[in-house]
Backbone:
C-alpha cells in the first residue's frame, strides 16, 4: 500500500515538472478575466437594480439608466414640448390631425413599466441578451397611448373626401345617331393603409414632423384607343333594335337600353364586347314580373275549415332564364331583330288530389272603411289578381309577381301612396291594403316570411281592427311582400273583397301538419305626437276651399314576436319591428279668385 502511494506521488511530481508554463499564464489570465466579468456584472446589477437598463428608448426619449420617476418625468417633459399635431402635405394643401380632434392620450406609466421589464423577464437567456445588446445599441419601445378610433376614422374620411378624385374608364355614349367614345380619366386616392401607418408611426415615436400625404394614382383600364378598335362592332349592337315577342305582347329594346346592356372586357391588350351580366339579370327580373304566371286554383266548397271541393283554374308558366339568355345573346351579337320569349311550364300535377289543398291553414282580415272610390278599386283589383295563386313546396310567393305591373295601363286608378317619405297621388294607391292583409294571413298560417317592409307611418285603415305593427307595404319594383311554402304540399292563396262591408280577407289553404302559432301582443314604445298641421296654398282650388291631403298620425316603435311550433319543436321564432314616423296633417288652401 505504501509502495503504491509513493509511485503515485512520483508520477504527480513528474507531470508538474512537464507542465507548460505558458498554459499556467493563460490560466491565470482566464481566472482574472472571469473575476473582472463577475465584478462588472455585480457592479452592473448594483447600479441598475432600480433603474431601466442601458439603451432603452421610449418613442424619441432615451430612458436607459433612469429610475421609474426620472423616466416618466422625461417623457412628460418631452410631451409638453410637442404640439402633437400631424401635418400631411399634398400639393399646396396641408391636412392636420390634432390630438384634441381624436382624443389622443399618452399613458406614460404603462410605457415606463414596460421599459423597466426589459432585462427582468425571468428568462436568463433573453435577459442576458437584452442587457448586453443595450450596452451597444438602442432598444426601442413604442410609446403607449390611446385615442378614439371613430374620430380618427372620421378625420381620415374628411381628408379622403377632399383629395380623392374618381377616375373612369373610357366608354360609349349615344350622340344623335352616332356612337362616340368618351375620354378616360385618371383618379387619385388616399392610400388609407399608408396614411394610418404614418399616423401610428408619429404617435409611436413622438415624431410630429410634417409628412407627405400618401396617395396612389388610379389609372383607367379602358382607354379611348381600346374602344376605338371595337367601335364598329359596338355600333352594330347598339343601333340594332331588338323586339321580344310572346303572343301578342311585345317588348322593344331601343339603342339606349342596348347600350346599357353592353359591357367591355379587357384581357391584356385585347378588348372584347360582352353582355353586362348584372344589368341583364335586372332586366330579366323586370321581364319575369310581367310574364310569370303562377298556377291558380280555387276552393269551391268547404265543410267548416275542411276543403270538400278544389279545382284547378289555370296552369303556370315562367320565364326560362337560361334558354332566353342564350337566345338573347345570339340576337344581341349577331344583329337579329326579333326573338321569342322563352317560357317553361310550371303547372302542377294533373291529379288535383296531389296538390294537398285539404284545409284552412290561416286567414287575415283588414277594413277599408272610409276609403275613396279609387282606393277601393285598386285594392279590390290587386286582391283579384293574386287570388288563387298556388305556391309549390319550397316555392317563394311574391306579391309583386302575383299581381303584375301596377299602373294605369293595367287598370289601376290614381290614389294616395307613400313615396319617398311623402303622401302623394300615385297609380295603384291602396294596393298595400292587399299586402297587409295577406301578411296577417301568412302570420296566422305559420309560414316563414321572406320579405316584409312596414309603412313609413301609421295608416288609419290598418288599425281599424288591428293594433299597430301588423302591416306590410309594397312599392314596385323594390319593395315586395314574400313568403315561403315550407310544407310538403302546395298552398293556395285565396282572397275575398267585400266593398259593402269594407272588408278584405285572405285565406291560406293547404295540408295541416300540426304546427301551432303563437303571436304576442305588440309592444308600443317611443310614441311621439304628430307635428302641427301644414297649410299649403293651392291656386287650382277656389278661394275659401280647404282640402285635406294628408292625415296626422302618432309616431311609434311597434314590435311583436311570432313563434311557430311543431311536435314540440320551434320551427320559426321571429320578431317583427316597425318604426313609424310622426306624421303631420296637410291641407291645401284654395287661392283661386
Residues:
Amino acid at each position: 500500500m505504501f509502495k503504491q502511494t509513493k509511485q503515485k506521488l512520483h508520477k504527480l511530481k513528474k507531470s508538474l515538472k512537464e507542465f507548460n508554463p505558458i498554459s499556467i499564464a493563460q490560466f491565470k489570465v482566464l481566472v482574472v478575466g472571469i473575476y473582472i466579468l463577475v465584478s462588472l456584472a455585480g457592479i452592473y446589477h448594483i447600479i441598475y437594480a432600480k433603474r431601466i437598463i442601458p439603451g432603452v428608448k421610449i418613442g424619441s426619449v432615451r430612458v436607459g439608466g433612469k429610475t421609474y420617476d426620472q423616466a416618466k418625468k422625461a417623457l412628460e417633459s418631452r410631451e409638453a414640448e410637442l404640439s402633437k399635431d400631424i401635418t400631411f402635405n399634398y400639393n399646396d394643401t396641408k391636412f392636420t390631425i390634432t390630438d384634441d380632434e381624436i382624443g389622443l392620450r399618452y399613458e406614460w406609466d404603462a410605457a415606463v413599466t414596460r421599459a423597466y421589464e426589459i432585462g427582468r423577464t425571468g428568462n436568463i437567456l433573453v435577459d442576458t441578451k437584452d442587457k448586453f445588446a443595450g450596452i451597444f445599441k438602442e432598444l426601442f419601445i413604442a410609446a403607449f397611448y390611446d385615442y378614439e378610433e371613430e374620430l380618427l376614422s372620421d378625420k381620415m374620411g374628411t381628408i379622403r373626401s377632399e383629395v380623392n378624385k374618381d377616375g373612369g374608364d373610357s366608354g360609349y355614349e349615344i350622340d344623335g345617331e352616332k356612337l362616340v367614345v368618351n375620354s378616360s380619366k385618371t383618379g387619385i386616392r388616399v392610400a388609407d393603409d399608408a396614411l394610418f401607418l404614418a399616423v401610428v408611426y408619429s404617435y409611436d415615436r413622438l415624431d410630429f414632423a410634417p409628412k407627405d400625404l400618401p396617395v396612389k394614382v388610379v389609372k383607367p383600364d379602358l382607354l379611348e384607343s381600346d374602344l376605338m378598335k371595337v367601335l364598329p362592332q359596338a355600333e352594330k349592337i347598339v343601333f340594332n333594335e331588338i323586339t321580344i315577342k310572346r303572343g301578342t305582347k311585345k317588348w322593344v329594346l331601343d339603342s339606349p337600353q342596348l347600350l346599357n346592356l353592353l359591357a367591355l372586357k379587357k384581357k391584356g391588350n385585347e378588348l372584347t364586347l360582352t353582355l353586362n351580366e348584372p344589368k341583364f339579370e335586372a332586366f330579366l327580373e323586370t321581364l319575369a314580373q310581367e310574364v310569370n304566371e303562377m298556377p291558380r286554383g280555387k276552393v269551391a266548397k268547404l265543410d267548416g275549415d275542411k276543403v270538400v271541393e278544389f279545382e284547378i283554374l289555370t296552369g303556370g308558366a315562367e320565364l326560362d332564364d337560361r334558354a332566353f339568355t342564350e337566345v338573347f345573346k345570339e340576337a344581341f351579337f349577331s344583329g337579329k331583330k326579333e326573338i321569342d320569349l322563352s317560357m317553361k311550364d310550371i303547372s302542377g300535377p294533373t291529379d288535383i288530389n296531389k296538390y294537398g289543398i285539404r284545409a284552412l291553414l290561416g286567414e287575415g282580415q283588414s277594413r277599408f272603411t272610409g276609403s275613396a272610390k279609387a282606393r277601393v278599386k285598386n285594392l279590390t283589383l290587386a286582391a283579384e289578381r293574386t287570388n288563387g295563386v298556388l305556391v309549390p313546396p319550397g316555392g317563394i310567393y311574391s306579391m309583386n309577381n302575383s299581381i303584375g305591373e301596377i299602373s294605369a295601363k293595367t287598370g289601376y286608378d290614381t290614389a294616395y301612396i307613400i313615396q319617398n317619405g311623402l303622401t302623394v297621388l300615385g297609380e295603384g294607391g291602396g294596393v298595400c291594403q292587399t299586402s297587409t292583409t295577406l301578411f296577417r294571413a301568412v302570420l296566422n298560417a305559420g309560414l316563414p316570411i321572406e320579405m316584409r317592409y312596414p309603412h313609413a307611418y301609421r295608416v288609419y285603415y290598418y288599425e281599424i281592427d288591428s293594433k299597430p305593427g301588423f302591416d306590410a307595404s309594397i312599392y314596385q319594383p323594390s319593395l315586395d311582400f314574400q313568403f315561403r311554402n315550407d310544407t310538403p304540399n302546395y298552398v293556395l292563396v285565396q282572397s275575398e273583397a267585400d266593398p259593402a262591408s269594407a272588408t278584405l280577407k285572405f285565406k291560406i289553404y293547404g295540408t295541416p301538419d300540426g304546427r301551432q302559432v303563437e303571436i304576442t301582443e305588440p309592444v308600443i314604445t317611443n310614441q311621439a305626437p304628430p307635428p302641427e298641421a301644414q297649410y299649403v296654398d293651392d291656386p287650382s282650388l277656389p278661394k275659401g276651399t280647404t282640402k285635406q291631403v294628408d292625415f296626422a298620425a302618432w309616431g311609434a316603435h311597434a314590435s311583436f314576436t311570432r313563434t311557430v311550433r311543431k311536435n314540440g319543436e320551434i320551427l320559426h321564432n321571429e320578431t317583427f319591428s316597425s318604426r313609424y314616423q310622426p306624421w303631420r296633417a296637410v291641407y291645401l288652401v284654395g287661392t283661386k279668385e
